[in-house]
Amino acid sequence: MKLIRTYSRTAQAAAAIDSLEQRGSVSTASVEPTVRAILSAVRKRGDKALTEYATKFDGLHKGRSLLVTQEEMQQAWNSIDSKLQLAMQTAQANIQAFAEAQRAEEWTLSTSEGVTTGQIVRPIASVGCYVPGGRYPLPSTLLMTTTPARVAGVERIVVCSPNPAKETLAAAHLAGVTEFYRIGGAQAIAVLAYGTQTIAKVDKIVGPGNLYVTAAKQLVSTVCGIDMPAGPTEIVVTSETGNPAHIAADLVAQAEHDPETLAVFITTNEALGRQVAAEVKLQTKSNPLAKQSIAARGHIFVTKTVTEAHELTNRLAPEHLTVDTLADLNWVQNAGSVFVGPWSPQAMGDYVSGPNHVLPTGRNGRIRGGLSVMDFLKVITVQQYTRKGLKALGPHAAALADAEGLTGHAASVRMRMK
């Protein structure tokens, strides 16, 4: 990892920090023409185009149905060992409990006599959950996307995953998935957004994916809701007193996701920084993907002050952030998910803690948190006036309407006040 002192090599530090800060969301320009062609083909030719792409890109065997049957999911569940079954059940229970605690409440408020306002909460009618199936099988992502949707009360939950592994199918059985298609890439996003003759479209698409999936989600976002664009995994550890082997282990663990993972350690303790660098070098010897990622985007920033370390962390707005103590939460402003203390490896959040592991990347941690039950709910506002309430507030509304030149608005209020 590159160790940079922000206070002595200022030009180098500024350039490195600026590059990381300006990384933004993943650039999809290189694949956009291909993705547009796939979206257009599925929209125009429906199931025929979908089957062609699934055969070409997703390894769909000729004559095999796109739809995964309930029996296949049941068989997959029965085929995994009891230890993995228990792990999945534990993860799902924690994800469900966390989602239930997150759910928005309905309420009413009276600010004036005769005026009642409030909100009601309703689920989105249908959602599509994309589960990647490339480098690794990701049953955890299936649980992370479908479980909060179920807690929200979504009536139709559709899963798309290319060439799904038995572990993913097993997780689908546990989650009670009834509509699962072995489709991936841009073609999966196309069918979820536009529908075909046999597969109905959905109202919102969630879940991470590769560059083609991300580009497709962004392009269909004008006709279908999406959660967020997904870029390469990101980890920042900001620590003064952490265990160098543990810090390095977290950096390596996230770095093995993707060759473009952002892995950063921030500290004022240069000795700790050098120990972490040595540990990362040691731990990546048997992990070539993590080694490649760390070499490309691994940084250790040694700052002059703790305050500077905190400011730099918030500027980077990482997907995953590890800090030393609960007191550190007071300065954290921008992050997808925070892990506190020496006994909280980030991998726990990837699987069983309960908070979602679908998290904002590309500094989107400045504007939103991770996927939650709220991504599957609509908060609908409600207003009710009595005659007395309208008489009290109506003149104010009419005055504002007059000021804006909207005479019809003013008239709709005044005629009720006569």
Automatic annotation (TrEMBL):
First-level EC class: oxidoreductase
Cofactor note (record): Binds 1 zinc ion per subunit.
SUPFAM superfamilies per record: ALDH-like
Cofactor(s) the protein needs: Zn(2+)
One Pfam family per UniProt: Histidinol_dh
Metabolic or biological pathway, per its Swiss-Prot or TrEMBL entry: Amino-acid biosynthesis; L-histidine biosynthesis; L-histidine from 5-phospho-alpha-D-ribose 1-diphosphate: step 9/9
Binding site for NAD(+): 130, 187, 210
GO biological-process terms attached to the record: L-histidine biosynthetic process
Residues at the catalytic site: 319 (proton acceptor), 320 (proton acceptor)
Entry binding sites for substrate: 233, 254, 257, 320, 350, 404, 409
InterPro entries: Ald_DH/histidinol_DH, Histidinol_DH_monofunct, Hstdl_DH
Single GO MF annotation: zinc ion binding
PANTHER family: HISTIDINE BIOSYNTHESIS TRIFUNCTIONAL PROTEIN, HISTIDINOL DEHYDROGENASE HDH
Function: Catalyzes the sequential NAD-dependent oxidations of L-histidinol to L-histidinaldehyde and then to L-histidine.
Protein name: Histidinol dehydrogenase
Lineage of the organism: Bacteria, Pseudomonadati, Acidobacteriota, Terriglobia, Terriglobales
